[in-house]
Amino acid sequence: MTVPTSSDARPVERPAEPMAPGGLLSFRLAAVQTSAAEARRRTVEQLTAWCAPGVVCDNAQLVMSELVTNALRHTCSEWVRCELRRDDDVLRVAVSSEGPGPQGPPAPAGEEEESGRGLLLVVALSIGWGVRRSESGRGHTVWADLDLRPAVP
């Protein structure tokens, strides 16, 4: 499936400014190729406002990018909803779309394959991840939890 492109692809919703510490950031983007970059930008902006450690910002940005890219490539969605939720020592990164979700753990990509490692990266960077079907039966949410606690040397 080819992801649609648009030179004027704009998010459907955009908050005026980052949320307060300890909060929730949720935004909806059109299902176009530029949405992964926009989701990464907003993730870094919010985590910077929350004073998250640099490694968490890097990991969350990568996880968000992989989840959005998977939603764009593997579902027939018109939109994706992205969410960052900070609770105590855990950051949840979630992406919802209108299509069916993965049915299990990611299969390993072959040595010669150029793609297929996105969920493996999500698994490696997170302390937990999963898929939740929409209550309406149309769509799903893929989420990953990241540890916000500083690493102990």
How do you describe this structure in short?
With 153 residues, the chain is α+β, with helices and mostly antiparallel strands. The protein contains 3 helices and 5 strands, in the order βααββαββ.
Explain what this protein looks like in three dimensions.
There is one protein chain. Helix content is 29%, strand content 25%. The protein has 153 residues and is of the alpha+beta class. It has one domain (26-104, 115-147): Heat Shock Protein 90 (2-Layer Sandwich), CATH 3.30.565. It has a five-stranded antiparallel sheet, with helices on one face. The longest helix is centred in the middle third of the chain and has 21 residues, at 54-74. 27% of the residues are buried.
Order of helices and strands: EHHEEHEE
- Output the CATH topology: Heat Shock Protein 90
Q: How many strands appear in the DSSP assignment?
A: 5
Q: Number of helix segments?
A: 3
Structural class, judged by helices and strands?
A: alpha+beta
Largest sheet, spatial ordering of strands: 1-2-3-5-4
Q: What distance lies between the first and last C-alpha atoms, to the nearest angstrom?
A: 44 Å
Largest β-sheet summary: 5 strands, antiparallel
Write down the overall mean pLDDT.
80
Q: In the CATH hierarchy, what is the superfamily?
A: Histidine kinase-like ATPase, C-terminal domain
Percent of residues in helices comes to 25-40%
Question: What's the assembly state of these chains?
Answer: single chain
Organism: Streptomyces aidingensis
InterPro entries: Anti-sigma-factor_SerPK (IPR050267), HATPase_C_sf (IPR036890), HATPase_dom (IPR003594)
Domain Histidine kinase/HSP90-like ATPase: 33-143
GO molecular function, one term: protein serine/threonine kinase activity
